[in-house]
Amino acid sequence: xxxxxxxxxxxxxxxxxxxxxxxxxxxxxxxxxxxxxxxxxxxxxxxxxxxxxxxxxxxxxxxxxxxxxxxxxxxxxxxxxxxxxxxxxxxxxxxxxxxxxxxxxxxxxxxxxxxxxxxxxxxxxxxxxxxxxxxxxxxxxxxxxxxxxxxxxxxxxxxxxxxxxxxxxxxxxxxxxxxxxxxxxxxxxxxxxxxxxxxxxxxxxxxxxxxxxxxxxxxxxxxxxxxxxxxxxxxxxxxxxxxxxxxxxxxxxxxxxxxxxxxxxxxxxxxxxxxxxxxxxxxxxxxxxxxxxxxxxxxxxxxxxxxxxxxxxxxxxxxxxxxxxxxxxxxxxxxxxxxxxxxxxxxxxxxxxxxxxxxxxxxxxxxxxxxxxxxxxxxxxxxxxxxxxxxxxxxxxxx
Length: 399
Prior knowledge:
By secondary structure, the protein is α/β, with parallel strands linked by helices. The protein has helices at residues 2-37, 67-75, 97-103, 119-131, 151-160, 179-201, 217-222, 232-242, 263-293, 300-307, 311-323, 327-351, 363-372, 374-382, and strands spanning 53-60, 83-91, 107-111, 137-140, 145-147, 165-172, 213-216, 247-257. The protein has 2 domains: 16-40 and 278-382, no CATH class; 53-265, Spore Coat Polysaccharide Biosynthesis Protein SpsA, Chain A, CATH 3.90.550. The protein has 14 helices and 8 strands. It has an 8-stranded mixed β-sheet, with helices on both faces.
């Protein structure tokens, strides 16, 4: 009887040690960025004013219900001395997205393809056409989004001042619609504010979040937008870094995107995003690691970012490490949990969302919900998925 118990103990130690070691890169990344997010803002000098034309691109797939709101929000922006036009890319739409966008005052680019389906293809299609029209930069805003009145001016000036690419704060438009939406709001404060803000303070490229970002046209000429995966923003950002470009964080402006409040839409969205990210990890981590080992240190932080699992899975591994009988694994697990708490506190502090901090009390249920998504996540990680509009209009009070 003793031998089987001893074997189980050795197995449990091995499992706990493995879990602890898997969390080390992610914990280091969280600590680095959480501290960085609280550092003073880096100053940049403006360049002399010059004529500057911006194309605002709104990729849309079956967004008839919300596209008018997005266009109206952009039209209400204050551009200062910048000139801008709004282009809606009606991509493989089977509804009235194109007609509603045109009636709202946007110019419409219509695209149909049976084989090249997805947001990345839609953006590349638009960028190729706009490059021929003399625009100096592009801003990308999702079709379910409203923007701050200073978004166009802040992003446009940053591009005109020399930034190769920029990313605004990207937060939740409907945080009070359900408990899950409130949790998503805090999660986006961590992922879309604390982390890019921390990178900005350390002088790193902040990443692209898929919504509320901008690119100079000369950046697109040097690095064409050929990213076609579900996480095309992450894919393109890695390409930018490999070519020596950096993305600047715009902490003074924000875009607000609608998050699914109902269970079905939330499951679909999280599985697609995190499944696509897992596929990107599998395909790019070996190359990034080789680059770091060969002295390309600019690839180190993107490597750590990819090795950081979604926070719910990261916490699960930390809990396993804390429960192992091996002291070193327990200490790593406990230290990692402390870092997660600090990261969430930084998210609440930086995001100004103390009124929603109580929602963290239901975080364990959210972690369990995320664990139940693993089969779907793995399915999405095996192959790219078509661009399917996430169901957002059926709110639910539950998780």
